[in-house]
Design a protein that fits this description.
About 35% of the residues lie in helices and about 25% in strands. It is of the alpha+beta class.
Amino acid sequence: MKKITIKATARRAVAVFTLFSFFAIFLLVNIFRLDYLNYEYYKQKTYDQVTTSAKLTANRGNIYDSNMNLLAKSSTVWRIFVSTKDIKTAEKKSGKDYKRIIADGLSPILSMDSDGIYKKIAGSSVLDVTIKKTASEEEYRAVLNFIGEKGLEDLLFTEAQTSRSYPNDTLAAHVLGFTGSDNQGLYGLEYYYDDVLAGEDGYYVYAKDAGGNALDTEYSSYFPATDGYSIVTTLDSYVQGELEAILETVRVNHSVNNRVCGVVMDTKTGAILAMATSSPFNPNEPFTLDAQSEEKLATSGYIQGTKEYNAYKSELLQVMWSNKAVSETYEPGSTFKIVTVSAALDSGAASLNNTFSCRGYYEVGGWRIRCHKITGHGGGFNLAYGLQMSCNPCMIALSERIGASRFYDYVEKFGYFEKTGIDLPSEASTIFHKEENIGSTELATASFGQRFKVSVINQLTAISAVANGGKLVTPYVVEKIIDSDGRIVSQHETQIKRTVISEEVAKTVSDILIEGVSGDGGAKNAGVSGYDIAAKTGTSQKFDILDDNGNSYLRIGSTVAYSCDENSGISMIIVVDEPNSQVKYGSVVAAPYVSALFEKILPYLEFKSSSEQFNLNVENYVGMNINTAKEKLKEAKISYEIIGNGDTVLKQTPTANQSITLPLSKIILYTEQIEEANVIVPNLVGTDLATAIKTATNAGLSIRLLGAGATAPDSDDIICEQSLPPGELTKRGSVIVIRAINTKFED
């Protein structure tokens, strides 16, 4: 029995020893695996459990215009938030209603409803509740004072954040775009250059205890944020502002249904000086509809809050944000005739000596395609006249001489089958016939810019190739990228894609266009006294929308123009989509506004004017001896009237530096302190130019003449605007500015 017990005990001892041996081996293997094989993995898991990180937001780069005026900037705002967990704990300990204390205290500071703040805190199940995301500097400091006064350091908190703002509100909105809630670019330059502007966020890593409090340990690390670069654009704020003002005038004057857009570009470099679409939204409040869109929504018949209402509002926002000059297409109409004539001359298919005829229509492919002048332009006229008069049969005849294949090649050379490459998002592509599908009818309609679509920026870029001597350039908006110290990171260089026509042909076509504007051509409304303006108007039909009889009834009126001096050139285009005025031709709804914009920006851009023989700024004669003043006026061939018997000029009308048109104006000099006579301003709008000049002169007013009448007046010119309101009393001799347009041309 005893031997059996000893043996059993020995066996049990061996079993236990074996078990412990296996367990020890298991432990040693796992310790080896943990300490050596998976050391980094478990180290990171431990690190993650005892550490947390705080984001350090990078400052987004600024956007400047070409003169370093701020267009977009980032500024610091503060998030105001509470810890609901700590509020509940504090309320249990003290019995105080801290939610109400905080709500009532923040309400006047943040201009928020007290009950709304209270419900926000009380109804939340998360630990961190934001009261206001973008508090201002003033609000931030007031909140800090409130926290200190009430001892809320563990309940109410502030956090610095970055906010994007646009100092000029709507200026260049469609070019700049805007950012989202996380400061990311969503539209325009903000989107296209988001990687450049955004920078790289940093973060602060620190150890924490069980209560989430920071511990000063070896685990604390600081990774600084890298601020974004700033971009300097080619935009000129003055030119941009003038363009936007002009487009709004067009929209109102012609009840435009589908917006107006325009672009101003340097013809040699492709730099965009201005680009705008009516009506500009405010990128500071991008989700607020503009007045026109809001009116459409209000009259839509949809009930606010419904699915249909919200969907329509979203659609209106998308349209409002869209940069019409880049992202939409249109039929260029007669402005494309510049390309047709250029191709004909450059290819040798036609010359200036060729003659053409127009019976008011041209028969091709079994169709009778009419000219805008139903009675026709007659016979025996040359190519220059055909372009200036915008004759469709002349263009069709030219396209037949060029031939479909060669015509297609020139359309391609002018860049229509590729995107311009402008540094803005969502550039639209041309919609054109496939080469094998171009029959006689397609060729005919394409010759005068119908039945195909291009983007506005593409059309202006193509025409600028004629303006600059035949070079197709890439348009661009960003001139350079700079760091926070102003050092240049990258600089744009002019990109010439190719030569599309010879310099000689480009000059010939430009001369034809200039002669048409300064003479009796269809684009004369685009003229500016003292400057050589090359221009072409166009009116195209919209075939996307038809009436009940299958006819197109909507129109697009446009004008493309350029002016060049010895060193530089400026081109511009204005496109009016669906004008609802009685006259819808580009020569009326666009050309006069091109003229008005050129009048503003050419002197500003220091283009030389030769207008002194027609227009001049009045000299200051006050204090001058009357005989000296009379001699000066006679020498300048300016009419004058002397009132009083004194020897010295005491007053004058018009006053010094006002611009007048000669010989339509007279200067009145006063040599005695005599009260100046007043006259009643007549209503000149709607009258013909000759009558208007006579009426204004008889009323005792001096005249400053703008528009078509200032360049090549004829009997069909009428006055479309005047500077002094009809019926108003003004000093005798005061300057009234009148603008003449010609309405006899279709295009």
